[in-house]
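Per-record layout

source: Halopseudomonas laoshanensis
name: Glycine zipper domain-containing protein
length: 193
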Amino acid sequence: MNTIIAGRFELQDQGEEALRALQGAGFPASAMTLFYVNPDGQHDIYPIGGDDDDSPGARDADKGAATGGGLGAAAGLAAGAAAATVAGPAGLAAAVGVGAYTGSLAGAVSSTDKESEVDEAVDDGENPRKLTDRHAGIHVAVRVDGEDAPDDALASAVRTLKSQGAMDVEQAEGRLEEGSWKDFDPREVVHLV
């Protein structure tokens, strides 16, 4: 693992200028990279898209569907029993099936989190500049350890990125090799410096 310093820029030209400034500070091109980070939820990490394998608002939908399905089946059984004299046993089975289906649908929908604050910022008042989510934009990252790193590389990288206008300058661990951050995960928490 390498120690990596990264900063966010609004424009690609600003990121490219920061790369030139880092090279001027003694960092080799193979220890730097420029890349774009998409907004939260748009990283296409899972085969169905997105950053999470389930919908935060639908986490309890399966429990609601099971409860609603049971209640719907019971209601369908009662209605089917009353109609069984007219429709026969097939009417009873159909009423139970329709009741179970309708109940499970109603239960699942009623169990979704309509008040989900998943996309809203949370301010807990505790030193908001130390840990945060990674914002979308152009990112420049530089490896600050290794044989090819200049003296005082960490401080030099932070100073250079900030002087070029980088926002959210962070320190991370990862594999930055041959001009590419090989194990970058946009969902990781940012440790600002």
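summary: The chain has two domains: 2-52+128-191, 60-110. The beta strands are 2-9, 32-37, 131-132, 137-143, 167-174, 176-177, 180-181, 190-191.
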